[in-house]
Amino acid sequence: MRARCWCLQMMSAPWTAWIFWLLLLPSWISMAGGMTLNQINDLRTDTEHMFYHGFNNYMKHAFPEDELRPLTCRPLVRDRANPAHIELNDVLGNYSLTLIDSLSSLAIMSSSNDSGAIAWAHFQAGVKDLVRLYGDGSEGPAGQGERARGFDMDSKVQVFETVIRGLGGLLSAHIFAVGDLPIRGYHPLDTEAAFAQAWDKGSFSEHDHGIQWENGFVYDGQLLRLAVDLANRILPAFYTETAIPYPRVNLRYGVPFYENSPLNLDPVCEKTGDRSCQKRRQGIPEITETCSAGAGSLVLEFTVLSRLTGDGRYEELAKRAFWAVWARRSDIGLIGSGIDAESGKWVHSYTGIGAGIDSFFEYAFKSHILLSSGDRSPSNSESPWSIWDNYYIPLSEYEHSADAFLHVWEESQASIKHHLYRGEGYQHPHFIQGDLFTGATRAFWMDSLSAYYPGLLALAGELEDATGIHLLTTAVWTRFAGLPERWNVATGDIEGGLTWWGGRPEFIESTYYLYRATKDPWYLHVGEMVLRDIKRRCWTKCGWAGLQDVRNGELSDRMESFFLGETAKYLFLLFDPSHPLNTLDAPFVFSTEGHPLIVPKRLSSDRSRRSREKFSDENTSQATCQIPPLPSGLGVSSTAARPDIFHAASLARLHLMPGRGGAEGALLDYAYDHPSVSLADLQSPSNYTFYPWTLPPELVPSNGMSSPMTTRPTLDISFPALPGVVAGPGSLERVREGILIKNIGGLRLSMIQDLLLLSSFDGTTTEGFRVQVINSVPLGKDEKVYLSHEVTFEVLDPTDPNFTCVRDSNIVDIVVDVGPEPFRKVNDSHGHGEKGAVAGLESTQQQSMTFDDKIGGITSAPSSSSSMRTVLSSLMSHVSSLLRDESPSGSTKSPKKTSSSSRLVIPATLPTGLGSAPLPDVPDASVAFFPRDSPARRLSWSTIFFVDELCDERLPKEVVQTHQVLVIKRGGCSFSQKLKNIAAYPPSRSALKLVIVVSYDDDDDDPDLPVAAAQKDPPIDSTQSKSPRSSTPQQLAAHRAEPYLVRPYLDEPQMTTGGIPRHHLISMAMAGGGEETYELLRRATSVGIKRRYTVHSQGVPINNLFII
């Protein structure tokens, strides 16, 4: 027995150990996840209590009015005594707004395993109450309610807020009510659901009915009919000359206050053109300024409404407004915050990702998701609005497609990241407020609305950027226990006294998206922090108040409808990982008000699928989502283990915060007159050492280390005032692509080392300086600074180590005057006569030229930087006009003879090797035209000879003695052999000075060549105003080929045809562009060269500074 027992003990020892570890594993996994399931359930319960405390008090103290005053326990209503009080009147339409905004939250919470029945009862009662008060908005008896027939209210409201809160809330609640979005345990009968879903009930019998609820109410689509009534009352705002909707509308009277609305034009006046008999508004003119978000963020709600009712007019108008805003983006792909609905012009030049702009980007991406299913409907010809169907030309199929919206997202995101994002190399990633047209920094604050952006990036699969940006917002919340309306990244202070947090949901929304994408427990603790701070700071006996000042906890007497409609909703979904919406595999989206929307699958067909495939071509992005980072070890959050986590804390100045005091207050369970209070609500386990302040120690890596914080080197250069020269506003001139410096005396250049410089010859990269501020004028990342050659070499010391001019030894610009056709007969190298034969060429004097002549494509840039290779012709045309304005005129008479010649610049590389020779000693050619008798106008050489490859024939002495420029085609033999076939000649003024080799390696059909800079925009409806964006002139082939040019290699010393070393070396340069360049040179009347220079400061190139 002992032996057997011993054997059993020996065998059971490892099994006992395995059983022990298996029993321990669930708790170990929970600890590794950073939060146990019980903890998550407790947080969800706290969130439910938070919601019901606000909702029940609204229903008790404020319903049926719009919002609740939680401090004084009374309703918040429109300020009818002060119509200009738009902060209230834009939102509060007198139609029980908070109830409508809360219905989708109630529907979502109806899936709670604990209190789902309570939420479902509130949802049913809320729908019943709405229908009792407002009817269903239809024309029959059912349309009339106790308060109004639908939304027949004398309320002037903001279009945007009414759509996202009112219309979106009604649509989302309807979709839940008919079962098109899931509610756990809710399965209406198919026949009843079909009746409630149908907009046209003509096919049903009189015995059919809607869904019978437990409270006795029969839901047959009343919310959808109310949504149509509300949308029809908003439609008058959509008819403008620009297709950008007016910002406000009266729910009863439309837009009588907008004088220029086509709805206010008398038909007789419209036909006669007599504007004196048009309706005139009285009093102060109504503001027509709207915002990009307000005009462009209506697509989701209106598309769903069109798909559910079969009337495509709503979808068409909302999409048209979106495209009207996008068509007016700046040349650098940014949109502004304020735009005039009547003129289509930007009101402000500020841009960013926050207030006034935010949801435009959100709806670009989410429209791509929503439009991926369902069929687009035609407009209902029986609608009263059908008389306006011909006001606009219909949108194109492309503008309706899901891919079109994806392209907008991708282009706008690329522009934002390039111009407004401060990422690698800065203390921590963040965004700045920029200039709409240049991208220059205008301000360093971030607003609380911009906290949505990490969530949008996470939804789009950009997890790394989303995580980094969200870290900073988390640190700021940790510091203030709330997000101030604006916070300055540079100073660390609240910006402009905007200290409030009104319960905004954007930060917790992004936290929810990031947790769904990564499953990192870090975000559960961020949500826990938000929940505990709200409970600790915002609770009142009648609801939840906003923070008027996040610094001292002063409260505001308003509970915004979005607190229940969004903030509580996202917290609940964060703490309910198994919720049906969190596991739904369907193209649904949350609107910008947090209302779930979907085009039901029953509305999709093969036709919609084929339509989507039509626009899914090779240009459609095939990007894949980033893989979430794995934890660095068991029990450690990948976010908590990031080496840059302290960078965000440092930028938020968390390390300067005093430690939290000890816990204060009683420990209480939830009750109607106070929130639940625990020690965790009052005391931080980390004392600001880590953030969020709810982060448990076990999630902090024991050996975690912060990577060094990188800061970009900066340098300021100040130039002394020059005697007799007064510095003033005229010292700087803004041109198309940057700033022209006309007077350097007293100038200050502020530079930052952040531009990547790529050498086109050896492939090496270095970082160069970028001028970011001139005096007090900020510059965008792509803006250039132009300094004249005369100022550089005649006023400044070109050898100054802080401002050193360095000649480029790799590349030169060939300057040519080109006419529309040859002014003289040239030798024929294309077979029209004996190859290489001498044709009698004579120098031809240039014809006189007016000051209005245009300048062609000009380049003046260091070859070592790809961003400095090409100076656009439009810029040089502007510079030329400036120079002409300053040129003295010898006569007031207009020249009698004119020519349509253009001065072009062709980039060319210089040779290397034993046979290379320096450029001729001639002055640099000017890129601008001067008066007829000005010496600066003339180019150095005016006689040109053309041959083919010059490999099998020799060029006679007579040609080289009488022609200053020789043009040869590349190929057939070596460069050295081409020069060897040129006869020896004594130097003279008329003899050969320069050989230009034209390379045919880079033609237009080469797939490796870069595409034209200006891509075609999506087609915009012809009734809309044209975009102010001006197209970039088409580059010459020589310019497009420049990045691929190599330096000619002369592998042996220059020899004559007789094999004797050449005493007088021949200068050479090679240009790209093939036949186009060759033909341009054949039309040239004169040729010169312009050397390139780059400016270095302390040995580092200034990449965006050009010498012209």
TrEMBL record:
Residues 1-34 form the signal peptide. Ca(2+) binds at T592. It holds the Pfam family Glyco_hydro_47. It is an enzyme of class 3 (hydrolase). GO terms for cellular component: endoplasmic reticulum quality control compartment; membrane. Keywords: Calcium, Endoplasmic reticulum, Glycoprotein, Glycosidase, Hydrolase, Metal-binding, Signal. The active site is at E161 (proton donor), D358, E485 (proton donor), E506. Residues 1021-1035 have a biased composition (Polar residues). GO terms for biological process: carbohydrate metabolic process; endoplasmic reticulum mannose trimming; ERAD pathway. Its EC number is 3.2.1.-. Residues 603-617 have a biased composition (Basic and acidic residues). It is found in: Endoplasmic reticulum. GO terms for molecular function: calcium ion binding; mannosyl-oligosaccharide 1,2-alpha-mannosidase activity. Residues 883-902 have a biased composition (Low complexity). Its cofactor is Ca(2+). Residues 602-629, 883-904, 1006-1037 are annotated as: Disordered. Belongs to the glycosyl hydrolase 47 family. This is alpha-1,2-Mannosidase.
